[in-house]
Amino acid sequence: MNLGINKVVSEGNGNTLLYTALLAAMAANAIPTVADSIYFRRVNKLERDFDAGLISAEKLEWHVASEYYIWTAAYYGVLFLGIYSFGGKYKTNARILLTLLAGGLVVGTVNKNIEINKRIKGIK
User: What is the DSSP letter of 12?
Assistant: First the structure.
């Protein structure tokens, strides 16, 4: 699997690669995704289990932390594999990626609105 990273670095554009990666990470954390929706649902269930005495405080905290990293990494892994497996030209890959991100944005936003509405009504 040759992603062309070595070529970019050897041509003296390593900093550009770092800047791009940091900007992408910033954008990725600012945009709600499908993974966020799954995470919020799972955390809600874990909190209900904790409130009911089914799990300990330690188990709750470890699960909440691991759920965040597992779902986020899985989501971006699927995006990477999808783009990589399609191959093709940059414009095609960019369109596919933007479509997937937009879909994640919609699902994440809807889920966030549900959470806000529940808080307003005092329902957890």
Answer: T
Residue 72 to residue 65: CA distance in whole angstroms:
11
Listed in sequence order, the DSSP H helices in 12-89 are: 14-30, 34-51, 57-86
Token pair of 19 as six digits: 């800047």
Token pair recorded at residue 108: 């994440």
Say if residue 75 is in the same domain as residue 39.
yes
User: Which residues span the domain enclosing 108?
Assistant: 32-121
Contact 92, 86 (CB under 8 A): yes
Q: For 33-58, what is each residue's pLDDT tens digit?
A: 778 778 888 888 898 899 999 999 99
What pTM was computed for the model?
A: 0.58
pLDDT tier, 5 (very low <50, low <70, confident <90, very high otherwise): low
